[in-house]
């Protein structure tokens, strides 16, 4: 079953002689449960494409359908709600709130949506991520790998249809990178979540 469809996506910054074409007429589709890598060199427009897929940025032209919904036909408020419920985003630089602990950071998307995370669900997620003993720690008390696992938990806690990962191992050592890849593969396999990952590796 097709979960994502992209049609003639274009993103241009600036105009005239200063115009930069970051995404140039991209079309593709992704099936439910696929694990897809978007590979390219730095500056090739990978992150821009990911932000367009997740509704974080609007395209200059083209369409993105998630589960048949044309996300750019929605207004900004409805896109934000749709993104919170259907899309999980894992950022390369974690984007954790420094004043919130692991558990609170992971619960943010649910709380923004007016929902509470059930204790059993949070406990299970912390166990899967190997963060049970770190649940009350602040980001500055965590290693890079632990911070990235927290950001993965935040992306997965809503059980989104699609997970978008922007170079999630880019700032980690080999051991931590392997752990993150194992987590993503497990999520893909056991929860049948569709994962689109950007990487230059």
What attributes characterize this protein structure?
201 residues; alpha/beta; four-stranded antiparallel beta sheet; four-stranded parallel beta sheet; 6 helices; 36% helix
Write the layout of secondary structure elements.
Layout: E1 2-13, E2 20-31, E3 35-39, H1 46-53, E4 61-66, E5 69-70, H2 76-86, E6 87-90, H3 102-112, H4 119-129, H5 144-156, E7 162-166, H6 174-191, E8 194-199
Parallel strand pairs: 3-8, 6-7, 7-8
Antiparallel strand pairs: 1-2, 1-4, 4-5
Helix pairs in contact: 3-5, 5-6
Describe this structure in words.
- Helix 6 (174-191) links the parallel strand 7 (162-166) and strand 8 (194-199).
- The protein has 201 residues and is α/β, with parallel strands linked by helices.
- Helices cover 36% and strands 26% of the residues.
- The strands form 2 sheets. It has a 4-stranded antiparallel beta sheet, with helices on one face.
- Helix 3 (102-112) runs parallel beside helix 5 (144-156) and helix 5 packs parallel to helix 6 (174-191).
Determine the N-to-C terminus distance: 28 Å
Count of distinct strands = 8
Overall mean pLDDT = 88
The major beta sheet can be summarized as: 4 strands, antiparallel
How are strands sequenced across the largest beta sheet?
Answer: 2-1-4-5
Which spans of ≥5 residues are poorly predicted at pLDDT below 50? none
Alpha-beta content class:
alpha/beta
